[in-house]
Amino acid sequence: MRWMHCLAIGALGLALAACTTSPTGRSQLMLMSDDELDQMGAKAFAQYQSDRPTVSGAPLRYVQCITDAVVRVLPAEARQENWQVRVFKDDSANAFALPGGYVGVNTGLLDIATNQDQVASVIGHEIGHVLAHHANERASTQSATQIGMTVASVAAAAAGIQGANHDMAMSALGMGAQYGVQLPFSRSHEREADKIGLQLMAQAGFDPRASIVLWHNMSEAGGGQPPEWMSTHPSHGNRIQGLQANMETALASYRQARQSGRTPHCQ
Asked: Residue 136 contacts by C-beta under 8 Å, 6 or more apart in sequence?
């Protein structure tokens, strides 16, 4: 169909215009500037703080200590950011890092991550998302998808596809974009952040083997998951396999960090 051909050409043009490479060598589509992403990160962090109560004292000092240790081994351009840390009173076992240098950890995660190494595996993973510019890639992919859908809709109308046939074609394209592009991109982001985070925590002096224990804890606490092809995250089993596949390299970095005197003691 000519209109499908037009959509493919439009998507290819966007990809060629803004293609870059992630820290692991994967090709990425980037349509937004770092300044735009940093502003979005600051706004999201402020909104999150206004929506949820924060926790100070020992939990904040504990998470701050772990985050500081990870940040010290970041590339210079990321390490110079003014990373801000907050602990939120929330029972869900979640954490996040945002462009611009913001880290948030829920108290629910501290119940499941039972030591500093397990917490470091989560913080390393979340900062890995920032280092790999996943927010930019995600937003760019969604933007490109919307542009492509608009082009397809106009082309379909020009080709005489109207009414129910038009709606069915656009619905099929929408499902294809979600399950064929956006969700797989999210799963690839998770796997990439796992790989980056494993190295970060090891280089900071945290035992990378704790990441495996953490995901066993998550699996025991989390209940069922949707099929992986319908999820933004890999299954717990696949996630553990991915971590194990990169463990040998991470352990070498961990031993080197310990020999160099990087031995965090966060309590």
From this structure: 28, 30, 31, 32, 34, 37, 99
The most distant pair of C-alpha atoms in the chain lies apart, rounded to whole Å, by 70
CA gap 27, 139 in Å, rounded: 15
Cα–Cα distance measured from residue 239 to residue 246, given in angstroms and rounded to the nearest whole number: 11
Q: How confident is the model at residue 239 (pLDDT cuts 50, 70, 90)?
A: confident
Rounded-to-integer distance, Cα 130 and Cα 193, Å: 9
Cα(139)–Cα(38) distance, rounded to whole angstroms?
13
Q: Report the distance separating Cα 174 and Cα 205, nearest Å.
A: 45
Is pLDDT of 41 > 80?
Answer: yes
For residue 264, the surrounding DSSP H or E stretch is none
Helix and strand counts by DSSP (H, E) for the chain: 12, 6
Q: Shortest CA distance to 116 belongs to which of 66, 75, 158?
A: 66
Active site includes 126?
yes
Task: Report pLDDT digits (tens) over 72-110.
Answer: 999 887 766 678 999 999 998 889 888 899 999 999 999
Backbone angles phi, psi at 211, to 5 degrees: -65, -35
Given 77, 126, 137, 220, which residue is catalytic?
126
CA distance readout (Å), 212 to 16, 26, 87, 150, 237: 38, 24, 23, 43, 10
Q: What angle (nearest 5°) sits at the alpha carbon of residue 160, between those of residues 158 and 166?
A: 100
Residue with tokens 């796992």: 194
